[in-house]
Design brief:
By secondary structure, this protein is an all-alpha fold. The chain has a domain at 94-240. The protein is 84% helix and 1% strand. It is built from six helices and two strands. Strands 1-2 form a two-stranded antiparallel ribbon. A hairpin with a 5-residue loop joins strand 1 (6-7) and strand 2. Helix 1 (25-90) runs antiparallel to helix 5 and helix 2 packs antiparallel against helix 3. The chain starts with 5 loop residues before the first strand and ends with a helix.
């Protein structure tokens, strides 16, 4: 059998005063019990640490799941949003009125851009260190190009506005401008009067060119709508499937962590029990040998205790004699002191 170890309250080993007294059946079984209890305490302490790590890992996985699902949803919405945005833009061309309003809006924006550019250019030129002649030359050139741009914008704006007013107030597409003269602004009437191109055929030509373009855009929109409807169903199915796969994978990871945590704890407990069982089995197998050694140790222990008791008794006897002797010496000394005093 292995040499037995004794433990104090703090888990420190120490030697027995009578080593022979520890090599008995009771001591061996107690040692097995102590080792098992210490293993249980160690497992319990590690269990708290490992449980904390498991809980943290589980929380981290849950947080990652939320982020991954959110990112996945955004990606799905972006795929659909691209088509929806394209369809929304093409919806501006569902009717000729919408198309004309859209084009008029673009012209207004372009006019503002031209004016803002001119202002910024003049401001930068004034602040520059260029000579006055250079500045005047560039400003004159700017005035010319700005006037040309604004004239062209005004022309398109007027034409689109006249066509819009006509189709809103007339069912025909003859573009007899006299029918809407009362609706036009003075500046528009003035342009019509001075313009040599503003004829009925001119407006018809522009209208049908726009209508032809609108129909092409409408076909494009119809294709996108069909694609969107088909894509939406497919993308939604893919999204739901991938979403479920993400959740399932996360759940499996958490379950795997939980399984490993429980299995590790179970394994350690089983190992501790197995060590205990094997130790007890080993004690049982060597029981006769232990009892034989125990009997010899009992004799040795008895002899040691007897010798110790005899020594104690001798010391007591010596102490008693010394005590009497000391008492006599004290009395003699007292008599001497009294004699001297008298």
């Amino acid at each position: 059998m292995n040499e037995l170890k004794l433990y104090n309250w703090y888990g420190e080993t120490f030697e027995s005063i009578l080593p022979s007294s520890t090599k008995n059946l009771k001591a061996y079984k107690k040692q097995v019990k102590n080792v098992f209890l210490r293993s249980k305490d160690s497992i319990k302490a590690n269990e708290k640490v490992e449980k904390d790590l498991y809980v943290r890992a589980k929380q981290k996985l849950s947080d990652n799941l939320k982020r991954e699902l959110a990112s996945h949803k955004v990606a799905y919405k972006n795929k659909i949003a691209v088509l929806k945005d394209s369809i929304k833009k093409l919806s501006s061309f569902d009717t000729m009125e919408k198309l004309l309003k859209f084009e008029i809006g673009k012209l207004k924006k372009k006019k503002n851009e031209v004016q803002n550019y001119a202002k910024d250019f003049v401001y930068s030129l004034i602040k520059s260190a260029d000579d006055i002649d250079f500045k005047i030359k560039n400003i004159s050139q700017l005035q010319k190009t700005t006037t040309e741009s604004e004239t062209e914008i005004f022309k398109k704006f007027t034409v689109y506005n006249i066509i819009l007013l006509y189709i809103k107030n007339n069912s025909d597409r003859d573009f007899d401008i006299k029918k809407i003269e009362h609706l036009l602004l003075p500046i528009e009437l003035n342009w019509l009067e001075k313009s040599k191109i503003a004829t009925t055929s001119y407006f018809k030509d522009i209208y049908y060119k726009l209508e032809n373009e609108r129909q092409k855009l409408q076909l494009q929109k119809d294709k996108l709508v069909a694609e969107y409807n088909a894509t939406y169903a497919i993308q939604k199915e893919i999204y739901i499937r991938e979403k479920n796969n993400i959740k399932l994978k996360n759940k499996q990871t958490i379950l795997q962590l939980e399984y490993e945590y429980n299995e590790n704890l179970k394994r350690k407990r089983e190992e501790a029990k197995k060590v205990k069982e094997l130790s007890l089995k080993k004690i049982e197998e060597q029981k006769e040998q232990i009892i034989s050694v125990q009997a010899k140790n009992n004799l040795i222990t008895h002899e040691i205790i007897s010798k110790a008791n005899n020594s104690i008794n001798r010391i007591k006897e010596i102490y008693k004699k010394e005590k009497v002797t000391q008492k006599l010496r004290s009395q003699i000394q007292l008599y001497k002191d009294l004699y001297i005093y008298i």
